[in-house]
């Protein structure tokens, strides 16, 4: 599903529809989402990228920085930023009006013609800040229902520490799988760590594993002791 | 302290202690930053770290020149040709840190009003920084003339404006970027900025009133918390957990 051996092996048996990635800013959470979309393009799925305050060219370049060459025409773009972005496969929405985003996603889901849809939503924190937790919760839960009905999937990203714990827990509870990325320091070594915090129907993973990002993208290594 | 010469001796010891302690704190800070930057993927945080590093280095040079001036009993003017350009670079780096935080806030608060507000504040700060840097770079060439005192006064005014607008901007940023680490970073950068502005304003007063550098006890006392606030700020670029914290999360 992600093209990352460790993750694919561990979530193989789960009916994974909604995946949440939470962690501190700047560590490379979005790159997991790039893998998810890149794998989707390879499998012929309809791939959707929601973004705000960035240019499509920049995102394309980011993909290629991690050895995932894509062309903008291969993705459907949902622009939630202030500036309008022109393009056939771009839908312009307003992040302060969440219904515009859910309508755009539902439109894509309804036009899928039996193909699976993969939605990458790395702007959950922005959506919560520009609205409020309750509105986001309503938007997200109605979206999940629709995505599950249409046999599709979604990956969302949330910044750690930006929202009150109650909001984060309620979002976690809506998701099938939760990835957790932390940075840890031991003996002058700074190590990013990864674990699957929640997995529907599976026991919690208590161990952390080494998380590495290089020009080949994300790789998850041995257990961190 | 029995008389003025004893006071000078105490101040010299204090200055010397700061001269030794400050570089140690800076080395520790920069070393840790170099380890952290390796795991950072986001350009904005990398930039924030780069400008913080540059601010630390140039602020350090700026205050070390002050220590040397005090220890060698030089007048403020004698080192102005080095101190002022170094101070200008430190101010530019401070501006870059504030700009970076403002841009990060605009990435989260996606509203036209917010964007316009951020752009307006950025323009005001940029204008102050350009004027300040210009005066800081050219004023040492006028030492001894009447215009030098005028330039010194302008520096003081511009520094106060820079401090005021920066604190206002950082306060706004803190309303959007509410995570603990960013708020701590903003807090310590504000403290560093406050000290950074208070110290040269003390110098400006010293130059205008023609005071001897030995009287500037405030500067020596403030340098350690100044460098320490950078050390604390550098711990807050990103959340890094210790073993105990990690265990408690399991």
Name the descriptors.
heterodimer; A: 225 residues; 34% helix; 29% strand; globular; B: 250 residues; mainly alpha; 8 helices
Secondary-structure map with pairings?
The complex is a heterodimer of chains A (225) and B (250).
Chain A: H1 5-10, E1 18-23, H2 29-42, E2 46-51, H3 56-65, E3 76-79, E4 90-92, H4 98-110, E5 117-121, H5 124-130, H6 133-149, E6 153-159, H7 165-174, E7 177-186, E8 189-199, E9 209-214, E10 217-223
Parallel strand pairs in A: 1-6, 1-7, 2-3, 2-5, 3-4, 5-6
Antiparallel strand pairs in A: 7-8, 8-9, 9-10
Helix pairs in contact in A: 4-6, 6-7
Chain B: H1 4-37, H2 43-71, H3 80-108, H4 112-138, H5 146-176, H6 180-208, H7 217-234, H8 243-249
What does this structure look like?
The complex is a heterodimer of chains A (225) and B (250). Chain A is an alpha/beta fold and 225 residues long. Chain A has helices at residues 5-10, 29-42, 56-65, 98-110, 124-130, 133-149, 165-174, and strands at 18-23, 46-51, 76-79, 90-92, 117-121, 153-159, 177-186, 189-199, 209-214, 217-223. In chain A, helix 4 (98-110) runs parallel beside helix 6 and helix 6 (133-149) runs parallel beside helix 7. The longest helix of chain A is centred in the middle third of the chain and has 17 residues, at 133-149. The mean pLDDT of chain A is 90. In chain B, helix 2 runs antiparallel to helix 7, helix 4 packs antiparallel against helix 5 (146-176) and helix 6 packs antiparallel against helix 7. The longest helix of chain B has 34 residues, at 4-37. Chain A binds chain B through residues 24-28, 31, 52-53, 80-82, 95-96, 125-126, 129-130, 159-162, 182-186, 188-193, 206, 208, 213, and chain B through 35-36, 38-42, 44-46, 106-112, 115, 176-181, 238-243, 246, 249-250.
At a glance:
The complex is a heterodimer of chains A (225) and B (250). Chain A is of the alpha/beta class and 225 residues long. Chain A is built from 7 helices and 10 strands.
């Amino acid at each position: 599903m992600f093209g990352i051996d460790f993750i694919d092996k561990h979530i193989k048996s789960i009916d994974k529809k909604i995946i949440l990635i939470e962690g501190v800013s700047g560590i490379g959470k979005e790159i997991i989402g790039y893998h998810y979309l890149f794998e989707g393009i390879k499998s012929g799925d309809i791939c959707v990228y929601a973004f705000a305050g960035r240019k499509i060219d920049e995102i394309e370049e980011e993909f290629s920085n991690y050895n995932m060459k894509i062309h903008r025409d291969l993705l459907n773009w949902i622009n939630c930023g202030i500036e309008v972005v022109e393009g056939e496969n771009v839908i312009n929405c307003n992040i302060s009006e969440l219904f515009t985003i859910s309508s755009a996603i539902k439109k894509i889901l309804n036009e899928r013609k039996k193909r699976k849809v993969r939605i990458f939503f790395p702007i959950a924190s922005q959506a919560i800040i520009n609205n409020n937790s309750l509105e986001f919760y309503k938007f997200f839960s109605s979206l999940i229902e629709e995505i599950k009905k249409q046999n599709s999937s979604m990956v969302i990203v949330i910044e750690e520490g930006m929202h009150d714990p109650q909001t984060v827990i309620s979002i976690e509870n809506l998701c099938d799988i939760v990835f957790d990325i932390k940075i840890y320091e031991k003996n002058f070594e700074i190590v990013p760590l990864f674990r699957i915090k929640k997995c529907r129907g599976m026991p919690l993973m208590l161990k952390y594993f080494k998380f590495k990002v290089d020009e080949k993208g994300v790789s998850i290594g041995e257990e961190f002791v | 302290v029995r008389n003025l010469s004893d006071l000078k001796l105490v101040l010299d010891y204090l200055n010397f202690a700061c001269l030794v302690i400050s570089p140690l704190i800076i080395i520790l800070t920069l070393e840790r930053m170099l380890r952290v930057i390796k795991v950072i993927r986001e350009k904005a945080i990398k930039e924030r770290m780069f400008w913080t590093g540059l601010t630390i280095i140039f602020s350090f040079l700026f205050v070390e020149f002050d220590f040397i001036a005090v220890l060698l009993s030089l007048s403020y003017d004698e080192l102005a040709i080095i101190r002022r350009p170094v101070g200008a670079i430190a101010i530019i780096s401070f501006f870059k840190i504030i700009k970076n935080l403002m841009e990060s806030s605009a990435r989260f608060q996606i509203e036209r009003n917010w964007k316009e507000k951020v752009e307006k504040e950025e323009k005001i700060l940029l204008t102050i920084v350009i004027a300040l840097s210009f005066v800081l770079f050219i004023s040492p060439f006028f030492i001894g003339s009447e215009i030098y005192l005028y330039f010194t006064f302008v520096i003081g005014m511009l520094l106060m404006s820079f401090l005021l607008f920066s604190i206002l901007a950082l306060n706004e940023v803190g309303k959007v970027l509410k995570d603990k680490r960013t708020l701590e970073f903003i807090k310590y950068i504000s403290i560093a900025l406050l000290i950074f502005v208070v110290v040269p304003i003390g110098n400006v007063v010293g130059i205008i009133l023609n005071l001897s550098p030995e009287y500037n006890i405030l500067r020596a006392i403030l340098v350690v918390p100044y460098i320490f606030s950078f050390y604390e700020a550098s711990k807050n670029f990103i959340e890094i957990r210790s073993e105990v914290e990690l265990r408690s999360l399991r």
